[in-house]
Amino acid sequence: MSEQKNILRKIRFIIAFFMLALIVSGVTAFPVETELNTICSIAKIDSNSVKDSPAIFGFLLHIKDNLTEINQKTPQFAYGYDWLAFAHLVIAILFIGPFKNPVQNKWVIQWGIIACVAVMPLAFICGPIREIPLYWRFIDCSFGVFGVIPLLICLKWIKKLEQIEK
């Protein structure tokens, strides 16, 4: 296999992985109340157990209870999660361009890197306003950190592919 084809295969693998991660992340936003109920059930998180548990369990129970109440009283608020899921799916579609032609569409990879980095200021600006605990903001930031790593590798290989094609 030529070096060019080998690099292209690696680039496409990373992009496919990134797209799959976006799709899974998006699809899991639809049933968020069910997911929280399942997590709390499996981990046996309830109002009695959280007293002697790590703070994250209390936070999850608090969110689960509030989300259940909101969905019972005003299910229209869950529509925001539907749009969040939709946005993830649309962003995944955007990566078809660099999957097909990485050099011509490397701007999408660069845009993805910017979006991953932008997760951090969002988490630390909006997190306190929305009363999100500090440890949870770090969890949110991890999505940006773990997202930017494959995109940076991909960009490096695209630049190498660009040099070969010149």
Number of H/I helices: 7
Oligomer: single chain
Average pLDDT over all residues:
95
Helix-strand makeup class: mainly alpha
Low-confidence stretches: none
Strand content bin:
under 5%
List SSEs in N-to-C order. HHHHHHH
Rg from C-alpha positions? 20 Å
What is the makeup of the main sheet?
Answer: none
Question: Termini distance?
Answer: 19 Å
How many structural domains are formed by the residues?
A: 1
Explain what this protein looks like in three dimensions.
Helix content is about 80%, strand content about 0%. It is mostly helical. The protein has one domain. Helix 1 (about 5-25) packs antiparallel against helix 4 (about 80-95) and helix 2 runs antiparallel to helix 3 (about 55-75). It is elongated and about 65 Å long.
Keyphrases for this structure?
166 residues, mainly alpha
Describe this structure in a few short sentences.
By secondary structure, the chain is an all-alpha fold. 80% of the residues lie in helices and 0% in strands. α1 (3-27) packs antiparallel against α4 and α1 packs antiparallel against α7 (134-165).
